[in-house]
């Protein structure tokens, strides 16, 4: 089974607002961004979000008809009239009924309650119940969580002399019932400031209004009725209303009230479910307590749930809770059977290509549980589902929907086929005649096709932030827990982690439906559990790299607490890039290159771009500064993908150039909904194949790679025939005759049959370089616009006291960017500077796999002078040009490309200084790393002989990587030995000399005798390595040259 094709949507981050909130409210940038994702965008609102209190609740008398409702009920109480509370049978209705019943009982009112039978009577007021109330001499009916659609029943009650007050929160119909008062925050012209109360919340507001009137309170905070907060909390969570605004206050305070243990019925439920004497979360209320209360109304009578919640006796409550627990077990079995039957019916009768709404009906289904089964089907098929239980001539249905499809509006469009309907955007109930089911199915699908496209039916995972796997998970979860309680409108944050290595993976649970995984990144390990995700074991292999979307949870086992991932999705890395909602490209072209121009007319007038998109010429070359060149290839790729409807391949000379350029492109192109991928020879073979498969299927629209990878995968050139090929020349070495192999390779790829080609050099506008471009690529149009920055070089290479020199620079309180070669050196250097007197809060480190939003927050702090110094091992994401007063190469960069990228961060207009503090040892260390990543012929031969010596017959070697490396005798330190071994595996596999298979974490290496001598140059891993090392040699010569500044000037011209 292939990986799931879920679409990841990364929430757009606002660096400026993130900075403002984190500074003013004193919270982390992570927490500030998640608040922004929730629509909480002012520091004041963030403060209120974290510090809930009763003062944030609204007055009951903000409801339009509260005064009339209170007056009527007070008269009924005073006159000892019989009052009937008519509640719905779900948890919302049951808790609201219990609350109002208990309150009125405390007022010595003559009050009773009525809960309709779900199967016999269905949802809402019914005429038979109204007649019954009249016969029983009730004078007032107060509905709870129902009644807003009961126009006919209300007319009947009025004709019988019954007064009706409707408290409800469902969507009102166009014609409202003629009730004495309607208390509903969603009615037109409602003045109530919060529209998302649950039914129990509305009932609570009515009780508060009565309490204010009775006690003659002017301040609503004095009549909150806190003793009922546990009931309001329970019903609010169960009804899945947004836990924002007033509902957040209700649930936060209600969970605390629940823990006080003052209501025997709730205490009995906690005891039965094993949650007593423990902190209770909103999730536990929603998924453990609420289903048991719902079970009574689904299979028998919801009166049992009201009796439990209104009981004052612990023993009686425990008996009822045990009955509800058994009912819930039975409900699960019935629901499971319906779900399996529905799956079979979908396989047999539903055309998922045509039916955007699944509508199924069966006579044997229980109407009380079809809603739960419908929700599970929505989760599986990601489309609206309506399940219908046929009961004679009349049928009852439950509808559940996806976020982008308003099921209530859909039902309204089909109401000619319905007897009754009601509900919300995402859930609704219907009644219809059996003979109309087919017509209803056709009508709702006709409506759906006017609203939905096939893209809407692709499951979506909403990502709050991308983070790196390190030792900060404890800080992450501490921050995240401050956002509780979680629920609709405030979901548990979903985080993306990329490029994680699978260490262990297996199925667990009865029947092994769940996926248990151990991940590793940078020597840090973390466990993960994916419920009902074990089907991913069909493609996951030990050692493979993946991207995951997860929530974090604390896992307590044998008294030991660990942070673990709860997987929402898992994908091969780097097949998928997170996307943001894509604007209409024809209207928003300017978004692609904000660093150059702001509107589409000017973008199209850019000479190189104009020549390309108007196809005046098949090839265009351009000399631009790196920043503008980068944005031009983004723009060209975006236009080609969104308007030209074809893919784009961006070629770089060396693997070391790919990583950061790919990440920057994903940052910008992702905003337009364009997926970006990258590949080079350092990947495992399955990863290389996964990327190419994703590119050929269109899952990746823009591919960053090298000529070697492209030629190895696209043997016949068919995939590149219709693509735009962008050649990115970003290192001076690539544009010189000595490094001309890259340009020659690209020239072969840009053969005459291709439609479009764009060659961009960001390193020089010297005439001989530009003429070489024109000659090599046969580009009739060449444009040049490179301007050199005014920066000065300070040569401190080889100095003995570079720590003191750096200390003097950092003490100037000017902005500094310090480059180091390895992540392990970052903390070491910052700790050393701190011990010497530099304030730790004035420095930060950027290294490893930190995310764009984290880098942009750092840059914002530099601009605001909150930070002074950034110590980094990699180029920063975003607008870094001209940001720093000093750029310090404490270690040597890897090549000229890296040198220019970091040097470009200096503020040329203010005369930024570039400080060279590296020494010969630093340069030699880079060479050692390159030799491990791309072994030369001699080292490859030694590894070949060493591995073959491990097999008694010279044919096959097996074991874990650690076991094989322990036995392998070559002169390398352990880290470089492992890297060289990985490179050898890749090279030998590409040459057809080795078959590599894995089972779990064990390798089986089988030597292949193909009878022919192979050339190392036939391995694209080896060829990429040769070019990478030549680029380093080119830089090595300049890096240690006594005339370094003159040589750089000669290169740039």
Helix-strand layout with pairing:
Elements: E1 7-10, H1 15-25, H2 29-37, H3 43-50, H4 66-78, E2 82-87, H5 91-106, E3 110-114, H6 127-135, E4 140-144, H7 151-159, E5 163-167, E6 181-183, H8 199-215, H9 229-238, H10 245-259, H11 264-272, H12 282-299, H13 303-310, H14 314-349, E7 358-362, H15 370-381, E8 385-391, E9 394-400, H16 407-413, E10 420-423, E11 427-433, H17 437-451, E12 460-463, E13 465-467, H18 473-481, E14 495-508, E15 514-521, E16 524-530, E17 545-557, E18 560-572, H19 600-605, H20 607-613, E19 619-623, H21 626-642, E20 648-651, H22 655-669, E21 676-678, H23 685-696, E22 702-705, H24 707-713, E23 724-729, H25 741-749, E24 756-761, H26 767-777, E25 781-784, E26 792-795, H27 802-810, E27 816-819, H28 824-835, E28 843-846, H29 852-863, E29 869-872, E30 886-889, H30 896-903, E31 913-916, H31 920-933, H32 937-948, E32 956-960, H33 961-967, H34 974-990, E33 994-999, E34 1002-1007, H35 1020-1039, H36 1044-1052
Parallel strand pairs: 1-12, 2-3, 2-4, 4-5, 5-6, 7-8, 13-14, 16-18, 19-24, 19-25, 20-22, 20-23, 21-22, 23-24, 26-31, 27-29, 27-30, 28-29, 30-31
Antiparallel strand pairs: 8-9, 9-11, 10-11, 14-15, 14-17, 15-16, 17-18, 32-34, 33-34
Protein name: Single-stranded-DNA-specific exonuclease RecJ
GO biological process, one term: DNA recombination
Family: Belongs to the RecJ family.
Average pLDDT rating? 85
How many strands appear in the DSSP assignment? 34
Largest sheet strand order: 21-22-20-23-24-19-25
- State the CATH superfamily name of the largest domain: P-loop containing nucleotide triphosphate hydrolases
CATH class of the largest domain: Alpha Beta
First-to-last CA distance: 56 Å
Q: Which oligomeric form is depicted?
A: single chain
Structural class: alpha/beta
Count of discrete alpha- or pi-helical segments spanning 4 or more residues:
36
């Amino acid at each position: 089974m292939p990986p799931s094709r879920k679409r990841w949507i990364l929430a757009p981050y606002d660096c400026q607002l993130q900075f403002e909130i984190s500074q003013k409210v004193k919270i982390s940038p992570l927490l500030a961004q998640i608040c922004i994702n929730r629509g909480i965008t002012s520091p004041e609102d963030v403060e209120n979000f974290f510090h809930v209190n009763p003062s944030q609740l609204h007055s009951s008398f903000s409801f339009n008809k509260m005064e009339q409702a209170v007056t009527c009920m007070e008269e009924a109480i005073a006159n000892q009239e019989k009052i009937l509370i008519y509640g719905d049978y779900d948890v919302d209705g049951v808790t609201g009924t219990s609350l109002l019943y208990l309150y009125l009982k405390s007022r010595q009112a003559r009050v009773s309650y009525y809960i309709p039978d779900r199967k016999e009577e269905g949802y809402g007021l019914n005429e038979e119940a109204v007649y019954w109330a009249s016969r029983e001499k009730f004078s007032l009916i107060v509905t709870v969580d129902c009644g807003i659609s009961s126009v006919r029943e209300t007319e009947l009650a009025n004709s019988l002399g019954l007064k009706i007050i409707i408290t409800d929160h469902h969507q009102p119909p166009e014609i409202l019932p003629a009730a004495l008062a309607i208390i509903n925050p969603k009615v037109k012209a409602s003045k109530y400031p919060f529209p998302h109360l649950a039914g129990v919340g509305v009932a609570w507001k009515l009780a508060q209004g009565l309490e204010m009137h009775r006690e003659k309170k002017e301040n609503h905070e004095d009549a909150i009725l806190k003793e009922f907060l546990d009931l309001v909390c329970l019903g609010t969570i169960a009804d899945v209303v947004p836990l924002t605004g007033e509902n957040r206050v209700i649930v936060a305070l209600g969970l605390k009230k629940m823990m006080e243990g003052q209501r025997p019925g709730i205490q009995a439920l906690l005891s039965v479910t094993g949650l007593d004497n423990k902190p209770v979360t909103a999730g536990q209320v929603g998924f453990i307590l609420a289903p048991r209360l719902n079970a009574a109304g689904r299979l028998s009578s919801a009166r049992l749930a009201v009796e439990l919640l209104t009981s004052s006796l612990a023993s009686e409550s425990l008996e009822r809770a045990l009955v509800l627990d058994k009912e819930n077990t039975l409900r699960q079995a019935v629901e499971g059977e319906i779900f399996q039957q529905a799956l079979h019916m979908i396989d047999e009768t539903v055309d998922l290509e045509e039916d955007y709404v699944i509508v199924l009906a069966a006579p044997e289904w229980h109407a009380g549980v079809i809603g739960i089964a419908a929700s599970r089907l929505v989760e599986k098929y990601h489309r609206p589902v309506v399940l219908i239980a046929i009961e004679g001539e009349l049928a009852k249905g439950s509808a559940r929907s996806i976020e982008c499809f308003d099921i209530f509006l859909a039902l309204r469009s089909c109401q000619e086929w319905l007897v009754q309907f009601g509900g919300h955007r995402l859930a609704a109930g219907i009644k219809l005649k059996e003979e109309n089911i087919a017509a209803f199915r056709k009508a709702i699908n006709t409506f759906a096709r006017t609203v939905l496209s096939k893209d809407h039916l692709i499951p979506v995972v909403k990502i709050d932030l991308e983070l790196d796997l390190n030792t900060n998970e404890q800080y992450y979860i501490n921050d995240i827990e401050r956002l509780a309680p979680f629920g609709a409108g405030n979901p548990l944050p979903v985080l993306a982690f990329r490029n994680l290595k699978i260490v262990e993976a297996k199925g667990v649970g009865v029947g092994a439906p769940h996926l248990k995984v151990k991940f590793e990144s940078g020597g840090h390990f973390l466990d993960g559990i994916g419920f009902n995700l074990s089907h991913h074991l069909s493609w996951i292999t030990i050692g493979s790299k993946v991207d995951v979307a997860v929530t974090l949870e604390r896992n307590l086992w044998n008294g030991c607490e660990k942070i673990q991932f709860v997987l929402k999705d898992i994908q091969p890395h780097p097949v998928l890039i997170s996307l943001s909602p894509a604007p209409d490209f024809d209207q928003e072209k300017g978004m692609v290159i904000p660093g150059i121009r702001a509107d589409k007319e000017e973008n199209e007038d850019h000479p190189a771009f104009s020549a390309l998109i108007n196809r005046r010429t098949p090839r265009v070359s351009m000399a631009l500064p790196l920043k503008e060149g980068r944005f031009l290839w983004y723009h060209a790729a975006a236009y080609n993908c969104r308007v030209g409807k074809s893919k784009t391949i961006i070629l770089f000379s060396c693997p070391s150039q790919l990583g950061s350029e790919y990440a920057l492109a994903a940052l910008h192109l992702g905003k337009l909904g364009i997926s970006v991928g990258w590949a080079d020879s350092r990947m495992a073979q399955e990863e290389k194949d996964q990327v190419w498969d994703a590119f050929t299927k269109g899952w990746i629209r823009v591919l960053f790679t090298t000529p070697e990878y492209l030629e190895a995968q696209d043997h016949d050139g068919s995939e590149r025939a219709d693509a735009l090929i962008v050649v990115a020349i970003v290192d001076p070495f690539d544009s010189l005759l000595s490094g001309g192999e890259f340009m020659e390779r690209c020239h072969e790829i840009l053969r005459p049959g291709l439609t479009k080609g764009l060659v961009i050099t960001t390193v020089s506008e010297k005439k001989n370089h530009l003429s070489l471009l024109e000659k090599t690529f046969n580009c009739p149009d060449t444009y040049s616009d490179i301007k050199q920055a005014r920066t000065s070089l300070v040569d401190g290479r080889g100095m003995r006291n570079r720590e003191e020199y750096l200390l003097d620079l950092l003490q100037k309180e000017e902005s500094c960017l310090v480059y180091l070669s390895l992540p392990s050196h970052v903390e070491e250097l910052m700790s050393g500077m701190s011990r010497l007197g530099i304030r730790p809060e004035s420095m930060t480190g950027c290294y490893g796999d930190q995310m764009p939003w984290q880098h942009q927050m750092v840059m914002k702090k530099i601009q605001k002078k909150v930070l002074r110094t950034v110590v980094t091992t990699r180029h920063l994401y975003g607008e870094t040009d001209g940001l720093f007063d000093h750029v310090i190469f404490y270690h040597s960069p890897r090549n000229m490309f890296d040198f220019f990228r970091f040097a470009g961060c200096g503020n040329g207009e203010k005369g930024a200084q570039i400080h060279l503090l590296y020494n010969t040892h630093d340069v030699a260390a880079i060479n050692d790393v390159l030799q491990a990543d791309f072994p030369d012929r001699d080292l490859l031969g030694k590894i070949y002989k060493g591995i073959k010596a491990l097999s008694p017959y010279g044919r096959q070697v097996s074991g874990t990587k650690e076991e094989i490396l322990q036995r392998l005798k070559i002169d390398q330190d352990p880290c470089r030995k492992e890297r060289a071994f990985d490179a050898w595996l890749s090279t030998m596999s590409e040459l057809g000399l080795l078959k590599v298979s894995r089972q779990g974490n064990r390798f089986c290496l089988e030597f292949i005798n193909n009878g022919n001598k192979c050339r190392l140059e036939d391995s694209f891993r080896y060829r990429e390595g040769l070019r990478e090392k030549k680029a380093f040699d080119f830089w090595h010569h300049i890096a240690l040259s006594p005339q370094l500044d003159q040589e750089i000037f000669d290169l740039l011209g």
